[in-house]
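Could you help me review a protein record that somebody else here produced? This is what I was given.
***
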Amino acid sequence: MALADYQNFVKRRQTGEPVAYITGHREFYGYDFEVTPDVLIPRPDTELLVEAALKRLPTDRPLRVIDVCTGSGCVGIALARERPNLSVVAIDLSAEAAQVAQRNALRHQVAHRVEVRVGNLLDPVLGEGPSFDLLVANPPYIKPEAYPVLMPEVLNFEPQMALLGMGAEGLGHHEQILQKACKVLKKGAFVLMEIGYDQGPFFEGIGKVMQDLAGQDRVVEIVCG
């Protein structure tokens, strides 16, 4: 690193800008991903979403997966890297985020199996009928009351649309996904969504809640009947 680059790095860090945005990279599930301020920085906690999906995806036949709120594409691309039998439709409302996901699919050489689409939640696939085998999603879920008190590094630099949930409990996006999921998933297919540490009780009776390594509620699993 040249001296000028180092000085610029230090200056940006002093403002609180996350290292991942300064370097333009973040590791996720053992793979290196491009990140920009247009996408949420991938978190280790979200790797549970990948692990849960892999456990529920057979390896003996071609399968189709939907990755909703894909951001950098890290979840869908990690799944495609791990399983050659998968094809993924990765969806994001942000055209800028979709461009980052597309570049990541290209750099990981899975662009022929990861199709990036721009649109709201499941809208880009509703016309395809129940043709998918699994849905993964990391929707925004921060409660409105909690958003203003997030760490400054998150609040001041990461995209609000990737963090701030809908409704008082922050689960409006999850509800919208569940309303339409079974229209695009095969019978018996799994819906796996990341949730906040205190949101598990809202899914009691309709799904199974999984904990992360810290013992916090992190992923909810629901089966399309």
Q: What stands out?
A: The longest helix spans residues 95-107. Strands lie at 25-28, 31-34, 63-68, 86-92, 114-118, 132-137, 185-194, 208-211, 217-223.
